[in-house]
Amino acid sequence: MFKLTDHQSSNSKKMRLKSSRGFSARIYEKIIEYVLFLAALASVFVTLGIAYVLISESIPFFKVVSIIDFITDKQWTPLFADAHFGIRPLLAGTFVTTAIALIVAIPVGSVIAIYLSEYAHPRAREILKPILELLSAIPTVVYGYFALLFVSPLLQKIFVNMTGFNMLSAGIVMGIMIIPYVSSLSEDAMRAVPMHMREGSFAMGATRLQTSVNVVVPAAFSGISAAYILAVSRAIGETMIVAIAAGMQPNFTLNPTEPASTITAYIVQVSLGDLPHGSIGYQTIFAAGLTLLLFTFALNIAGHFLKKKFGERY
Amino acid sequence: MELKTNYKRQLLINKIFDVFFKYLGLFFLICALIALLALIGNLVSEGFGRLSFQFLSSFPSRFADKSGILSAWVGSFAVMLMTALFAIPLGVASGVYLEEYAPKNKITTFIELNITNLAGVPSIIFGLMALGLFVYKMSLGQSIITAGMTLGLLVLPVIIVTTREAIKTIPVHIREASYAVGATKLQTIRYHILPYSAGGIITGIIIAMSRAIGETAPLITIGALTFIAFLPASPFISQAPFVSTQWMFDPFTVLPIQMFNWVSRPQEDFHTNAAAAGLILIVFTLTLTAVAIIIRNYFRKRIKW
What we know:
The complex is a heterodimer of chains A (314) and B (305). Chain A is mostly helical and 314 residues long.
């Protein structure tokens, strides 16, 4: 009897020990799960941080400068005695450099994508694709050097009157940089198109080109448009190439052979100086940044919408 | 008969277009590669002669031929260290949570959408955020820790996405086998999921680092100085704890900023310095990228489920 109780008590003690260890282990697992959840939430806090800083620093700016002036004024001279705060010259610079970059990157990138996906030997593709992707791995400041000191002097042989700083060379080099964004993502989308769709087309007697243009590209439209949108948003947000090669003077022109400033280049220009924290000049970079963010945000939403509407359905 | 020749002619035209397009694709591809070669070749021909021990061990100077990149490469190294310390735990943890724990609900969808959006935000916007938040609100100043946190957040989406991709390739039966022998979820992750996805995760980390090392715009925005003729404080001291965190709060410059500074000057001699600095920079980034590709291929070949 006595022995039994002893046995029972030790048994129950063991049980308790075991269950308490299980309990603390469960707590530990839960704690880890919450820690991981907090890590995942960090990205949300980053977004909130970006929105908070840009909006809170822009509000005092828009109290001094009306939004109407900001949009309609044709001059951007915030650091001069006769200060004007019209964003349009910066937008024009951003627009021209982006347009040149896209004129280079979209046709070249798309043709390369079709070539790699539909024509190239698989082994050639395995080698060529990573090499091409090196183009987007090169630091942008190196591209800036290349644009200013290699491409620009080369172009000056054709456009004799062009200044050393110009939007054309910056735009072209930016285009070279974003070729891999267009080609790699488009190629991924095209290769995801099932083989039997191509085979159907070949069986009708179509050539590779006809199959690519009439079957593969339409089927991969969603992925290709995502690649184009990424290219546009890279070009709009690109900073160092335009800051180095396009000259940093706000210039309301659409002529690519002239120097101009972009939204991003202006932010760099102000950051290089030593404007006091809280001054209107300091606040302009946040207003400019907010404008930039709105553009990229609109592009992201457009991309999301396109993906939903034209998502792959084979 | 006429119909047949018409038909044949059409076939021939189609064939010609097809062949033409093939060579057009090849031509564009070669053009892009020539641009890459021209860029590298230009840096080598302009800057290679400038590379010397003096260049690596000197501070920037008013005289181009006495300038060097000592403070720049030490700064780049310190900032990379901070970036890695900050981005790797956060990125891998987020990736693991989203792939292994996250329930399918609105919060998860929101976090995922948010990461996709962040990946598309221009780097200079991160710089503005850091300027407002880290430099002024948190009073961290224009220091190495600010730079590391900024770049860490910038490359966070890259690490999260590659971690998730790597975990996704592990088949369900591996998890089931682990649960079947009584392992908990955490043990399964610790002893199975993380080791098997290590190749993919390391690839992502290296790609993220190679992006961070060349990033210039956000660091200029937080006000990284371009003329730094001193090194950050040493992490090792002679007194009691023997390690010091003072270096994290020191001002700094990095290689791309030093290069930008030299490119912006009108004198030719400084452009040579810029080319030499650029050469070192692309050797770093291209090596990192190559290592990432090799690791990826190695793990892809080795692991067969």
